[in-house]
Amino acid sequence: MKVSSPIVRCVAKSSIDFDAIQEFLDSEKMVWQRTTDSKSSDDLVEFSGRICYMSFGQRQSPRSNQEYILNLIDSGHGSVLEHASWTFIVSGVSRGFTHQLVRHRAGFSYSQLSQQYYDESDADFVAPPSLKKDSPLYKKWLDAMHSSVELYRELIASAKKLSISNSFSNKEKLRELRTTARSILPNAIETKLVFTANARALRHFLITRGAIEGDWEMRDVSTQILKIVKQDAPSLFQDFETIKLSDGSSSVIKKTI
Q1: Distance CA 67, CA 64 (A)
Q2: Does residue 209 have an active-site annotation?
Q3: Measuring CA to CA, which residue among 132, 179, 113 is closest to residue 3?
Q4: Where is the secretion signal located (predicted)?
Q5: Cβ–Cβ under 8 Å, residues 203 and 239
Q6: 104 among the known binding-site residues?
C-alpha cells in the first residue's frame, strides 16, 4: 500500500483565434489595441468585455489588459470571466477531498474514477500530515487502512457467498459486487478525477477553499491550481497570492489591490 500526495495537472485550456477576431474587427472597421505580451486567456476575457460596449478604436480606454480586467473584477462584471476555462486531472487526493470539491457546481464539470467499475484491491491512501509518520497513531492508521483493503479483497473474492440475484446480467452482478465491497473503503482512499472550471468559478473556489486552515488537501490543491492559472492568466488572478504557513504548508489568499 502506498501513501499518496495531491498532484494537479492542466490538460486543456481556452485558446483564442486572433485571426477570427481580426476578421470580425475588420468587418466592423474597428481596431483593438492589445496589451503587449498579454496572455491569451486574459485577452479572451478583455475582448469579450469590450464587445459589451464595442469599446474598440477611439472608444477604447487607455487601460492595460491587467487594469481592464481588474476593473471588471472590482465592478462585479463576473460573467465575462466565464469565457476562460481550464481542465485539470487531479490525482493523489482522497475521496474525502472530492466529496467536498464536487459541492462546487456552478461553472464546474466532473469525471471521477468509479468504484463500481474499477477494482480497488490495490488502492493507495492519502494520509493527513497531522499524523506524524513515526507516531503510534500513524501505525494504527496504516493498520486500519490495510484492514479495509483486506476485507475489500475478501468481499470481492466471495462473490458466490453474496446474495446477488441470478437475474442480473454479468455486468450488473459485477457492479453489485463492487458496490458491496466498496462500502468498507474509507474516505482516505486515493482517487482521481478530471474537472473543468471557468475563471469565475475558480476565483470563487480559491476564495472559499484556498485558505481553510483545517483542510490541508484543499489548500494544497488550491495552491497548485493558482500556480497553473496565474501563469496562463496573470491578469485574471492578479489579486491572489500564495503564502507559507508556520507548519511549512501553503495557503491561497485574496489580496487587496
Answers
A1: 5
A2: yes
A3: 132
A4: none
A5: no
A6: yes
Q: Which residues contact 60 (CB under 8 A, 6 or more apart)?
A: 31, 32, 33, 50
**Is residue 196 scored above 80 in pLDDT?**
yes
- For residues 235 and 70, is the Cβ–Cβ distance under 8 A? yes
Residues in the chain: 257
C-alpha cell at 112: 471521477
Please write the tens of the pLDDT for every residue from 124-149: 999 999 888 889 999 999 999 999 99
Under 8 Å between Cβ of 254 and 36: no
Is residue 204 part of an annotated ligand binding site?
A: yes
The single-letter DSSP state of residue 206 is: H
E strands of the chain, at which residues?
Answer: 3-4, 7-13, 85-94, 108-112, 125-126, 190-198, 240-244, 250-254
Cα–Cα distance for residue pair 150/160, rounded to 1 Å: 18
- The pTM for the full model equals 0.93
Region class of 169: left (phi > 0), else alpha (psi between -120 and 50), else beta: beta
Give residue 54's pLDDT band: very low, low, confident or very high (50, 70, 90).
Answer: very high
Percent of the chain topping pLDDT 90: 83
Confirm or deny that 83 is annotated as ligand binding.
no
Listed residue (197, 213, 217) closest to 253, CA to CA: 213
Q: Residue type at 233?
A: A
Catalytic residue among 95, 178, 203, 209: 209
Contact 126, 3 (CB under 8 A): yes
Grid coordinates standing for 111?
Answer: 469525471
Tell me how far apart the alpha carbons of residues 114 and 97 are, in angstroms, rounded to a whole number: 15
Element (DSSP H or E) covering residue 243: strand 240-244
